Amino acid sequence: MMGTASSDVGSGFSAHKTLDDYRRERGEGWQWARAQSETCPQCGENASDMERDLLGPALLESADAWRNFLLDADDAYLRNVPAPGVFSPIQYGAHVRDIQRVYGDRILLMLQESNPVFPQFNPDEAAWNAFNELEVEALADQIHEQAQRLAGILAALEPEDWSRTMVRDGGSDGVFTFTVAGLASYAVHESRHHLRDANGTLSPLT
Q1: pLDDT digits (tens, 9 = 90+) for 47-85
Q2: What sign for the dihedral angle of Cα 99, 34, 125, 198?
Q3: Distances, alpha carbon 79 to alpha carbons 5, 86, 91, in Å
Q4: Which residues, 6 or more positions from 172, have their beta carbon under 8 angstroms from its beta carbon?
Q5: Structure pTM?
Q6: For tag attachment on the chain, is the N or C end more exposed, with fewer CB atoms within 10 Å?
Q7: Helix (H) or strand (E) holding 169
Q8: Torsion of CA 17, 124, 99, 101, to 10 degrees
Q9: Angle, nearest 10°, between helix axes 55-72 and 136-155?
C-alpha cells in the first residue's frame, strides 16, 4: 500500500506523493506490521489475542460482513474516493481480497522454506484504479473465496507450523519478521480494519 502517487484525479492521488506522505499529513504514524502482535490504535483490534483455531472462522465471518456491506451499499458510494490518499470502499475490499490471497501463498511457502524473504505487497496505481471498476457481487464472492482458502490453510497447520517465520522487506518502510501466527492475525486485522474504513466507522487517530 505504499505506491508512489500520480496526478490522476480519479485515483485520489496527486503528483509525486506517496501513501506514506498522506498518512503523515493526517498524523498517522502506525506501522501496519505491528498489528501482528499489538492492538491497533485506530480500530482497537488485536487479533493476536485470539485463539489460533478462531482465526480462520474470523476471516469467514468478516468475509460475510464484507458481502453484506458491498451488496447493501450504494454503488456511487462504493466507488467514491473521499480524499487524496484514501481509497474508495470497493478499493479497500479488493485490497482485502488480495491480502488474503497473498498471505495464503506466503504461508504455504513458509511451510516449505526456512525464513523466506518477501517484498512488501504493493499494488501499483493502475491496479488501484482497476479495483474501482470491479463488479460488486463478483468482488464479494472473491473475498469469500480467498477467506475460505486462507481459513483452510490455517486449519491444516500443525502446532509447530505457527511459529515458522518469514521476513518482509519493505525497503524504507522497514524490515519485519512475521510468524505464521502473526501473518494470520494480520490478515484478520486487515479485513476488519478496512471494513471500518469502507463503511465509515473507523475512528481517526487523535
Answers
A1: 999 999 999 999 999 999 999 999 999 999 999 998 877
A2: positive
A3: 18, 12, 8
A4: none
A5: 0.86
A6: C
A7: strand 165-169
A8: 180
A9: 180
C-alpha to C-alpha distance for 60 and 43, rounded to whole angstroms: 19
Measured from the Cβ of residue 120, the count of other Cβ atoms closer than 10 Å reads 17
Helices (H), the chain: 19-25, 55-72, 75-78, 89-112, 125-131, 136-155, 180-199
- Which three cell numbers mark 96? 482485502
Q: Give me the residue label for grid cell 471494513.
A: 195
Tally Cβ neighbours within 10 Å of residue 25: 11
**What mean pLDDT is predicted for residues 167-189?**
90
> What whole-number distance in Å separates Cα of residue 97 and Cα of residue 92?
9
**Where on the phi/psi map is residue 147: left (φ > 0), alpha (ψ -120 to 50), or beta?**
alpha
pLDDT in tens, 152-177: 999 999 999 999 999 998 777 788 89
At residue 91, what is the residue type? Answer: Q
Picking from 17, 19, 50, the residue whose alpha carbon sits closest to that of residue 32 is 19
